[in-house]
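Hi,

I'm pasting everything inline rather than attaching a file, because the server keeps stripping attachments. The sequence lines come first, and each chain or strand is labelled.
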Amino acid sequence: MLFMKEQLSQSEFYILLSLAIKSRHGYEIMKQVEQDSGRKVILGPGTLYGSIKRMLQENLIEEVAGDNPRRKYYKLTEEGRTSLSSELQRYNDAVELAKRKNVFKDLGRVNLAL
Amino acid sequence: MSKAVIRRSERMYDFLLKLYPKRYRYEFEEEMKYVFSESLKDACSEHGPQAIIHLWARTILDTGKSLVIQHVANLKEGDSMKTKNTDILMQNKVIVWIALATGLLLLIPLIAMQFTSDVAWSLLDFVTAGALLFGTGLLFVLAARKMPRHRVAIAIVLAVALLYIWAELAVGILTTWGS
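And the predicted assembly:
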Protein backbone atom coordinates (compact mmCIF):
# COMPACT_ATOMS: atom_id res chain seq x y z
CA MET A 1 0.00 0.00 0.00
CA LEU A 2 1.54 3.30 -1.09
CA PHE A 3 -0.51 5.58 1.10
CA MET A 4 -2.81 5.13 4.02
CA LYS A 5 -4.42 7.84 6.09
CA GLU A 6 -3.22 7.90 9.70
CA GLN A 7 -6.56 9.01 11.08
CA LEU A 8 -10.03 9.43 9.61
CA SER A 9 -12.31 12.42 10.14
CA GLN A 10 -15.60 11.76 11.89
CA SER A 11 -17.60 11.87 8.65
CA GLU A 12 -15.08 9.67 6.83
CA PHE A 13 -15.22 7.11 9.64
CA TYR A 14 -19.01 6.90 9.59
CA ILE A 15 -19.14 6.78 5.79
CA LEU A 16 -16.65 3.89 5.72
CA LEU A 17 -18.64 2.16 8.45
CA SER A 18 -21.86 2.55 6.46
CA LEU A 19 -20.19 0.88 3.47
CA ALA A 20 -18.68 -1.97 5.51
CA ILE A 21 -21.56 -4.36 4.78
CA LYS A 22 -22.72 -3.36 1.32
CA SER A 23 -22.38 -0.76 -1.41
CA ARG A 24 -24.73 2.21 -1.13
CA HIS A 25 -25.59 5.45 -2.94
CA GLY A 26 -25.24 8.88 -1.33
CA TYR A 27 -28.69 9.14 0.23
CA GLU A 28 -28.46 5.63 1.70
CA ILE A 29 -25.04 6.50 3.15
CA MET A 30 -26.49 9.65 4.70
CA LYS A 31 -29.37 7.79 6.33
CA GLN A 32 -27.13 4.97 7.55
CA VAL A 33 -24.66 7.45 9.11
CA GLU A 34 -27.56 9.17 10.85
CA GLN A 35 -28.77 5.84 12.23
CA ASP A 36 -25.31 4.50 13.21
CA SER A 37 -24.44 7.67 15.07
CA GLY A 38 -27.79 7.88 16.87
CA ARG A 39 -28.51 11.12 14.95
CA LYS A 40 -25.36 12.75 16.37
CA VAL A 41 -23.84 12.98 12.89
CA ILE A 42 -26.18 14.38 10.24
CA LEU A 43 -24.39 14.91 6.96
CA GLY A 44 -25.63 17.53 4.53
CA PRO A 45 -25.09 16.95 0.79
CA GLY A 46 -22.09 19.33 0.79
CA THR A 47 -20.22 17.53 3.57
CA LEU A 48 -21.26 14.11 2.26
CA TYR A 49 -20.02 14.60 -1.29
CA GLY A 50 -16.98 16.59 -0.14
CA SER A 51 -15.96 13.56 1.95
CA ILE A 52 -16.82 11.15 -0.88
CA LYS A 53 -14.65 13.16 -3.27
CA ARG A 54 -11.68 13.07 -0.84
CA MET A 55 -12.15 9.37 -0.16
CA LEU A 56 -12.29 8.58 -3.88
CA GLN A 57 -9.03 10.51 -4.36
CA GLU A 58 -7.45 8.63 -1.45
CA ASN A 59 -8.68 5.34 -2.88
CA LEU A 60 -10.62 4.43 0.28
CA ILE A 61 -13.83 3.91 -1.70
CA GLU A 62 -14.69 3.30 -5.35
CA GLU A 63 -17.70 3.79 -7.57
CA VAL A 64 -19.61 0.65 -8.56
CA ALA A 65 -22.79 -0.19 -10.46
CA GLY A 66 -25.87 -0.63 -8.28
CA ASP A 67 -29.58 -1.48 -8.37
CA ASN A 68 -30.59 1.95 -9.64
CA PRO A 69 -28.63 2.85 -12.79
CA ARG A 70 -29.38 6.56 -12.27
CA ARG A 71 -27.51 6.67 -8.95
CA LYS A 72 -23.81 6.46 -8.15
CA TYR A 73 -23.02 3.64 -5.73
CA TYR A 74 -19.86 3.41 -3.66
CA LYS A 75 -18.10 0.52 -2.00
CA LEU A 76 -15.04 0.10 0.22
CA THR A 77 -11.69 -0.65 -1.40
CA GLU A 78 -9.14 -2.87 0.32
CA GLU A 79 -7.41 0.30 1.56
CA GLY A 80 -10.72 1.61 2.88
CA ARG A 81 -11.36 -1.65 4.71
CA THR A 82 -7.86 -1.56 6.23
CA SER A 83 -8.31 2.08 7.29
CA LEU A 84 -11.64 1.29 8.92
CA SER A 85 -10.21 -1.74 10.75
CA SER A 86 -7.23 0.31 12.00
CA GLU A 87 -9.54 3.06 13.22
CA LEU A 88 -11.83 0.59 15.02
CA GLN A 89 -8.79 -1.07 16.56
CA ARG A 90 -7.55 2.32 17.72
CA TYR A 91 -10.92 3.10 19.36
CA ASN A 92 -10.98 -0.34 20.94
CA ASP A 93 -7.43 0.13 22.31
CA ALA A 94 -8.41 3.51 23.73
CA VAL A 95 -11.51 2.06 25.42
CA GLU A 96 -9.48 -0.86 26.82
CA LEU A 97 -6.90 1.57 28.19
CA ALA A 98 -9.62 3.72 29.75
CA LYS A 99 -11.16 0.61 31.33
CA ARG A 100 -7.80 -0.49 32.78
CA LYS A 101 -7.30 2.95 34.25
CA ASN A 102 -10.85 3.04 35.60
CA VAL A 103 -11.54 6.22 33.69
CA PHE A 104 -15.20 5.32 33.11
CA LYS A 105 -15.78 4.92 36.83
CA ASP A 106 -14.08 8.25 37.51
CA LEU A 107 -16.12 10.05 34.93
CA GLY A 108 -19.23 8.38 36.30
CA ARG A 109 -21.29 8.93 33.16
CA VAL A 110 -19.82 6.84 30.37
CA ASN A 111 -21.39 3.42 30.20
CA LEU A 112 -20.54 1.60 27.02
CA ALA A 113 -21.75 -1.93 26.31
CA LEU A 114 -18.75 -3.32 24.48
CA MET B 1 -48.82 23.39 0.14
CA SER B 2 -46.04 20.91 0.97
CA LYS B 3 -45.47 20.08 -2.68
CA ALA B 4 -45.16 23.77 -3.54
CA VAL B 5 -42.69 24.29 -0.70
CA ILE B 6 -40.67 21.27 -1.83
CA ARG B 7 -40.58 22.50 -5.43
CA ARG B 8 -39.53 25.99 -4.38
CA SER B 9 -36.86 24.61 -2.05
CA GLU B 10 -35.53 22.36 -4.81
CA ARG B 11 -35.26 25.32 -7.19
CA MET B 12 -33.38 27.33 -4.58
CA TYR B 13 -31.01 24.46 -3.88
CA ASP B 14 -30.40 24.07 -7.64
CA PHE B 15 -29.38 27.72 -7.65
CA LEU B 16 -27.01 27.20 -4.70
CA LEU B 17 -25.37 24.28 -6.52
CA LYS B 18 -24.46 26.62 -9.37
CA LEU B 19 -22.05 28.33 -6.96
CA TYR B 20 -19.81 25.21 -6.82
CA PRO B 21 -16.78 24.87 -9.10
CA LYS B 22 -17.63 23.46 -12.54
CA ARG B 23 -15.57 20.31 -12.12
CA TYR B 24 -17.22 19.48 -8.80
CA ARG B 25 -20.68 20.14 -10.23
CA TYR B 26 -20.00 17.91 -13.18
CA GLU B 27 -19.21 15.04 -10.83
CA PHE B 28 -21.71 15.48 -7.98
CA GLU B 29 -24.46 17.98 -8.87
CA GLU B 30 -27.12 15.42 -9.80
CA GLU B 31 -26.38 13.29 -6.73
CA MET B 32 -26.50 16.28 -4.41
CA LYS B 33 -29.85 17.36 -5.90
CA TYR B 34 -31.20 13.87 -5.30
CA VAL B 35 -29.97 13.75 -1.69
CA PHE B 36 -31.45 17.17 -0.92
CA SER B 37 -34.72 16.33 -2.62
CA GLU B 38 -35.09 13.08 -0.66
CA SER B 39 -34.20 14.87 2.58
CA LEU B 40 -36.92 17.42 1.84
CA LYS B 41 -39.52 14.71 1.26
CA ASP B 42 -38.45 12.93 4.46
CA ALA B 43 -38.59 16.13 6.49
CA CYS B 44 -42.01 16.97 5.16
CA SER B 45 -43.55 13.54 5.59
CA GLU B 46 -42.09 12.84 9.04
CA HIS B 47 -42.22 16.21 10.74
CA GLY B 48 -44.27 18.54 8.52
CA PRO B 49 -43.34 21.73 6.68
CA GLN B 50 -41.67 23.23 9.79
CA ALA B 51 -38.92 20.62 9.49
CA ILE B 52 -38.06 22.19 6.14
CA ILE B 53 -36.93 25.34 7.94
CA HIS B 54 -34.59 23.24 10.12
CA LEU B 55 -33.36 21.42 7.03
CA TRP B 56 -32.68 24.75 5.32
CA ALA B 57 -30.78 26.09 8.34
CA ARG B 58 -28.54 22.98 8.26
CA THR B 59 -28.22 23.14 4.48
CA ILE B 60 -27.11 26.79 4.45
CA LEU B 61 -24.32 26.06 6.95
CA ASP B 62 -23.37 22.85 5.16
CA THR B 63 -23.32 24.52 1.74
CA GLY B 64 -21.37 27.58 2.95
CA LYS B 65 -18.65 25.45 4.48
CA SER B 66 -18.53 23.08 1.56
CA LEU B 67 -18.42 25.93 -1.02
CA VAL B 68 -15.29 27.39 0.57
CA ILE B 69 -13.60 23.97 0.81
CA GLN B 70 -14.40 23.08 -2.81
CA HIS B 71 -13.32 26.44 -4.22
CA VAL B 72 -10.03 26.33 -2.33
CA ALA B 73 -9.53 22.70 -3.46
CA ASN B 74 -10.38 23.72 -7.02
CA LEU B 75 -7.74 26.45 -6.94
CA LYS B 76 -5.15 24.03 -5.55
CA GLU B 77 -6.03 21.39 -8.13
CA GLY B 78 -5.59 23.99 -10.84
CA ASP B 79 -2.08 24.83 -9.63
CA SER B 80 -0.51 23.31 -12.72
CA MET B 81 -2.24 26.01 -14.74
CA LYS B 82 -1.51 28.66 -12.12
CA THR B 83 -2.06 32.25 -13.14
CA LYS B 84 -1.47 35.52 -11.36
CA ASN B 85 -5.20 35.78 -10.73
CA THR B 86 -5.44 32.50 -8.84
CA ASP B 87 -2.42 33.54 -6.74
CA ILE B 88 -4.20 36.72 -5.75
CA LEU B 89 -7.29 34.72 -4.84
CA MET B 90 -5.30 32.20 -2.81
CA GLN B 91 -3.59 35.00 -0.87
CA ASN B 92 -6.92 36.62 -0.22
CA LYS B 93 -9.04 33.65 0.69
CA VAL B 94 -10.54 35.83 3.37
CA ILE B 95 -12.23 37.93 0.66
CA VAL B 96 -13.89 34.78 -0.66
CA TRP B 97 -15.03 34.05 2.92
CA ILE B 98 -16.51 37.57 3.26
CA ALA B 99 -18.32 37.27 -0.07
CA LEU B 100 -19.70 33.86 0.90
CA ALA B 101 -20.73 35.03 4.37
CA THR B 102 -22.51 38.00 2.76
CA GLY B 103 -24.26 35.71 0.30
CA LEU B 104 -25.32 33.31 3.03
CA LEU B 105 -26.66 36.13 5.24
CA LEU B 106 -28.67 37.45 2.30
CA LEU B 107 -30.14 34.00 1.80
CA ILE B 108 -31.95 34.37 5.15
CA PRO B 109 -34.38 37.08 3.93
CA LEU B 110 -34.52 35.44 0.50
CA ILE B 111 -35.68 32.15 2.02
CA ALA B 112 -37.97 33.88 4.54
CA MET B 113 -39.68 35.63 1.59
CA GLN B 114 -40.66 32.24 0.20
CA PHE B 115 -42.57 31.33 3.37
CA THR B 116 -44.02 34.58 4.70
CA SER B 117 -45.25 37.87 3.27
CA ASP B 118 -43.95 39.72 6.37
CA VAL B 119 -40.53 39.78 4.73
CA ALA B 120 -40.60 41.63 1.41
CA TRP B 121 -37.19 42.81 0.22
CA SER B 122 -36.75 44.53 -3.13
CA LEU B 123 -33.71 44.02 -5.36
CA LEU B 124 -32.39 47.38 -4.15
CA ASP B 125 -32.68 46.17 -0.53
CA PHE B 126 -30.58 43.10 -1.36
CA VAL B 127 -27.96 45.15 -3.23
CA THR B 128 -27.74 47.73 -0.43
CA ALA B 129 -27.55 45.10 2.34
CA GLY B 130 -24.99 43.11 0.34
CA ALA B 131 -22.81 46.16 -0.25
CA LEU B 132 -23.04 47.12 3.43
CA LEU B 133 -22.14 43.65 4.72
CA PHE B 134 -19.38 43.01 2.18
CA GLY B 135 -17.98 46.54 2.58
CA THR B 136 -17.90 46.30 6.36
CA GLY B 137 -16.22 42.90 6.23
CA LEU B 138 -13.64 44.12 3.75
CA LEU B 139 -12.99 47.29 5.72
CA PHE B 140 -12.43 45.23 8.86
CA VAL B 141 -9.93 42.94 7.12
CA LEU B 142 -7.96 45.85 5.63
CA ALA B 143 -7.95 47.86 8.86
CA ALA B 144 -7.11 44.81 11.01
CA ARG B 145 -4.17 43.99 8.72
CA LYS B 146 -2.82 47.53 9.13
CA MET B 147 -3.42 47.65 12.89
CA PRO B 148 -3.56 44.06 14.15
CA ARG B 149 -3.25 45.09 17.81
CA HIS B 150 -6.47 47.12 17.61
CA ARG B 151 -8.62 44.64 15.73
CA VAL B 152 -11.12 44.19 18.57
CA ALA B 153 -11.70 47.95 18.76
CA ILE B 154 -11.96 48.12 14.97
CA ALA B 155 -14.52 45.29 14.99
CA ILE B 156 -16.62 47.06 17.64
CA VAL B 157 -16.55 50.43 15.84
CA LEU B 158 -17.44 48.84 12.50
CA ALA B 159 -20.21 46.70 14.01
CA VAL B 160 -21.77 49.76 15.69
CA ALA B 161 -21.46 51.76 12.44
CA LEU B 162 -23.06 48.90 10.48
CA LEU B 163 -25.94 48.56 12.93
CA TYR B 164 -26.51 52.33 12.92
CA ILE B 165 -26.56 52.58 9.11
CA TRP B 166 -28.79 49.49 8.92
CA ALA B 167 -31.24 51.00 11.42
CA GLU B 168 -31.21 54.34 9.58
CA LEU B 169 -32.02 52.61 6.30
CA ALA B 170 -34.66 50.38 7.85
CA VAL B 171 -36.62 52.73 10.09
CA GLY B 172 -34.77 56.07 10.15
CA ILE B 173 -33.36 57.37 13.42
CA LEU B 174 -31.90 60.81 12.72
CA THR B 175 -32.39 60.92 8.96
CA THR B 176 -34.87 59.79 6.32
CA TRP B 177 -32.38 57.73 4.26
CA GLY B 178 -34.64 54.72 4.24
CA SER B 179 -37.62 56.50 2.79
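Chain B has a mean pLDDT of 82.

If the labels don't parse on your end, tell me and I'll reformat.
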